[in-house]
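Weekly puzzle thread! Below is a chain. First person to post its structure in token form gets bragging rights.
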Amino acid sequence: MSNTPSFSAGMPVQTCRMEFDGRLVELLRRVVALFFIVVAITIPVWSAGEDAIAVIYPDIGEPYRNIFDEIIKGVEDKVGTQVSSYPVSADTDIAALKDRLLHQNAKVVIALGRQGMKTASTLNDGAVVVGGVLTVPESDAKRQPVITLSPDPALLFARMKTLMPTTKRIFVVYNPGFNSWLIKLAKEAASAQGLDLVVFPANDLRGAVQSYQKIFSEADGHNDVIWLPQDPITVEENSILPLVLQDSWNQGIAVISSNFGHVRRGVLFALYPDNEALGKRLAGLAEDILNSNAATAKTGLMTLLDVQSAVNVRTAKHLGINPMLLKGFNTSFPE
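Winning reply:
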């Protein structure tokens, strides 16, 4: 029996046409409704305004400007569109900046560098994601996510064990006012990798010098490594760093760092930011805020997970490290 609709010979042609048109209208209505349901599912809530994310960054010259350009490129790659970005300084007209952000309907500001973070703190309106800062007191990061320039200790220690598998202890001198949060993470990372993290808190240069003197009186080059975190006090570059580099060279003790510039000066290796990847991660945090609720989004200090690596080949040779193990680094010194 055929399933094709049939009409009786006595049914008026006009009635048939009206019934067919009604079915067609209902079918079109359902198709349109389904289309908008699919759109609502696949397009993020915040995409109604392409300018929902803005970036502010320090108004400084090269080579630092290029770093911020790379981070902004990563942001744009993640969100899939160009974002408005504004250079800021101590002389920035905050009222004018607020007006521009309001005009573009910015819901989240990605603030780069210390100046960007400082400027964002004066805006008062909207959510803020911070990146590209060295160290920030924990109290300043309670209300917003802050990705610091401190590489995650787990990544740092894993790379260290690849180069020096006999390592058992890691010595670190740190300023409790800045890096207590980082040391807590470092202890967990060291324990997970079978390492003992030996910590020396120091609040000033004198305390830092005394701590390093104690370390060098105890450490040996076969089992111990010294880690230099991002810390303006305990890793002060004009007096502390030369002292550490000289004594470590003389005693054959490896020094690893969270600062790229230290590798050129003689530190064995360091991890440093992959700028575009960092931009993507910052954009992801901004999207999380836009798609949920700024009040429930993740806040606080975070380590750097998107990293590249640099090694000093001369130092590695001095320490007797197998040259084959140095091929996985992004940058080598001496150049």
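Puzzle host: Confirmed. Bonus trivia for everyone else. The mean pLDDT is 86.
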